[in-house]
Amino acid sequence: xxxxxxxxxxxxxxxxxxxxxxxxxxxxxxxxxxxxxxxxxxxxxxxxxxxxxxxxxxxxxxxxxxxxxxxxxxxxxxxxxxxxxxxxxxxxxxxxxxxxxxxxxxxxxxxxxxxxxxxxxxxxxxxxxxxxxxxxxxxxxxxxxxxxxxxxxxxxxxxxxxxxxxxxxxxxxxxxxxxxxxxxxxxxxxxxxxxxxxxxxxxx
Length: 204
What we know:
By secondary structure, the chain is α/β, with parallel strands linked by helices. It has one domain (4-203): Rossmann fold (3-Layer(aba) Sandwich), CATH 3.40.50.360. It is built from 8 helices and 7 strands; from the N terminus they run E-H-E-H-H-H-E-E-H-H-E-H-E-E-H. It has helices at residues 15-29, 45-48, 54-64, 72-75, 92-99, 102-106, 128-142, 179-203; strands at 4-9, 33-38, 78-86, 89-90, 114-121, 145-146, 166-168. Strands 1, 2, 3, 4, 5, 6 and 7 form a 7-stranded mixed beta sheet that branches. The longest helix has 25 residues, at 179-203. It starts with a strand and ends with a helix.
């Protein structure tokens, strides 16, 4: 029985995207089917033009990833949210997608499925933990079984947070997270896929 993992993320400069791809690698290694989806920008071109590279990066990622939909919640056995930090909380772009899921929530589509979260910041100690934790109450309201990273793998003693994978890109506009952060994300993907598979069996 295949386990389906939906990774819904928002990324502006590519760091959160890179974590999402590493998390997908981990889930795939557990035999899961994975869908990577990027939440769309919600500001106009005049705002995007104020940040060098934003529009170009958005166009590149939108060409690679479909937008997440409410219909995919039916398909998913695990839903993983990824966000850059915005003043210590989830980005508005990802929150807009989550706010569109009221119908799926009302129908109980999330109940008993696995939920997890990860984040990226521009600086170390830039709100990574609070951003990930800001997604925990949302997942609880949706009815997801929250799957944190914890310290169940040796990689967690060198990077990440016990709440979810994280990367700090040192103020660079475009940066690839270090291998240690990507290893945490791969571990998170494996862990989520395993837990989601067990929960799927219980749901029958």
